[in-house]
Amino acid sequence: MVKSQNFNKKSPEVERLHINLARFRKGGRRFEIVIDPDNAVLFRDGKIDDIREVLIAERIFEDVQKGVFSPKQDLTTAFPNMETLDIAKLIFDER
Fold first, then answer.
1. Considering the entire predicted model, what is its pTM?
2. Alpha helices, DSSP H only, in 1-95?
3. CA distance readout (Å), 91 to 30, 39, 76, 77, 84
4. Closest listed residue to residue 75, CA positions, set 45, 42, 33
5. What distance in Å separates the CA atoms of residue 68 and residue 60, rounded to the nearest whole number?
6. Could you identify which of 34, 43, 86, 89 might form a hypothetical disulfide with 56, taking C-beta atoms 3.0 to 4.6 angstroms apart as the criterion?
7. Helix (H) or strand (E) holding 61
8. 24 DSSP β-pair partners
């Protein structure tokens, strides 16, 4: 006996996650940061002065969707003598 499959069954709904990004290209590489949109507006308006409050993650990504961080070598090549938060601020300001 062959079991029949019910193709009319709805598949479980997938929860969608919305991520707000700031992207920057330099030296043929892509750099991304994940930001809080509400705090980003406050930062632009001067009501927040610390970039940490804007960032969801204090990391620079090559591809946020895939969860790939930018390699340290790429960061030092593209942004010599800059710390992660300084790079994040630059990315945010340039978007």
1. 0.79
2. 37-44, 72-78, 84-94
3. 10, 15, 15, 15, 11
4. 33
5. 9
6. 34
7. strand 61-63
8. 31
* 64 and 21 Cβ atoms separated by less than 8 Å: yes
Count CB atoms within 10 A of the CB of residue 74: 18
Q: Which pair of structure tokens corresponds to residue 39?
A: 């705090």
Rg, Å, the chain Cα set: 19
95, two tokens? 């978007």
**Tokens linked to 14:** 């997938």
**pLDDT tens, residue by residue, 29-79:** 999 999 999 999 999 999 999 999 999 999 999 999 999 999 999 999 999
Rounded to an integer, what distance in angstroms lies between the CA atom of residue 9 and that of residue 18? 27
Rounded CA-CA distance 36/92 in Å is: 11
